[in-house]
Structure formats: C-alpha cells, structure tokens
Write a structure and sequence with these properties.
mainly alpha
Amino acid sequence: MPEVNGFQIKEALKRWELRRRTADQQFQDSIRVFEGDERPSPQDVIGAYKLADESYAKLQELQQWYNQQVTCSVLGGKHTLSYCVKVVGGLGRTEKLWRDACTEKRDRWYREELSRSKDQEYAKRTVSIEEAIQFAEEAAKQASEVRAAIAVGNATAINVGDGGFQITPEQYEALFS
C-alpha cells in the first residue's frame, strides 16, 4: 500500500470538496432543461455528489487516523498531531489576548482608567505593559513551536495499509487521483 502524508490528505480534501460543491450547484440546473440543451441528468449529478461526499468522508476518516499515528516533539513532550492541531488555535488566541493587553486604548471616549463609582475609584492594571509584552512573546513562541511541529508532522509519510486503517489500493487511487 502506498504512503501518504498530511499535505496530500489536505489537498485531496480540497479537491473532493470542490467536486461536491460543483455537483451541488449543478443539481438545480439539471431539474429543468430546454429542448436541445445537453446537461447531466439529476441522477448523474446526485451520483457525482454522493461519490464526492463519500470520498470526502473517507478522507476525513483517514486524516483523523493519520493525525493519531503521527507524533510531534513539542512543548516539552511528545504529542499526537491531532493534539497539536487542536491546541494551536488556543495558543494563537492566547497570544492575541496578551498582544491586546500590551496597548492602551487611546481615543476621546475611552478613559485610561476605568471608574467604578461617583467617588472616582479607578481600576488599575494588574499586569504592566512590559509584563504583557513578555507574556505575548512567550505565547507567540509556543504557538510558533506548535505550528512548526504541525508542518513537520504533516510532512511525515506513513504507509496507509499499516496500523489498521482499512483502504483498498483501488480506493486509494480513487481518493488521491
């Protein structure tokens, strides 16, 4: 059985999604035709749609399996590619939160300090801008480390037939051609 990597799976998913969307868009046009128009029948369009949908689902299943098989050395340990893909979003959002905390809003409607009552009790920063910058840089490093690990992980080629994933050579050829 041939080898596959994460990038190949991702690109195959894009192709099958395009085929599925195309069939979806063609369906309404296949319901009514003028005499002499040559269009695929609704049954043919649905056949193409179902093939694309089933192929997309099989590729997603393969991607999930692949992401569980590939391990990445990142954040001081070994993690599955699946974990890395899931955690990178939160790391990116954490980085953005700290970046946003690095600046003060400055406009004519916003006061630097928030007031809570008529007595003018003002809220104070709990983290200095300098500390926020350090936290933002650390969060950026972690997110970058995981993104790099994902790229390395996705470049890892593994044999599709090994490890229990069920796919025939014919299915493989159909999915990746």
